[in-house]
Amino acid sequence: MRAAVYQGPGTVEVTDVPDAIVADDLGAVVQVAAAGICGSDLHIFEGHGFSDDVGYALGHEAVGVVVDVGSRVSRFAIGDRVLVAASVGCVLCSTCGAGHVTACENRRQPWKEYCYGMSHRLPGSQAEFVAVPHADVNLFAVPEAISDDAALALTDNAPTAWYGARRAGVTPGDTVAVIGAGPVGQLAVQSAFLQGAARVLVVEPVEHRRAAAVTAGAEPVDVADPKTHIRDLTKGEGADAVVEAVGADATIALAISAARHGGRVSVIGVSQNDAFPLRLQALQTKELQFSAGLCSAQRELPTLLALTAAGRLNPAVVVSDRLPLAQAPAGYAKLAQRAPGVGKITLRPGAVTS
Question: pTM value?
Answer without folding.
Answer: 0.95
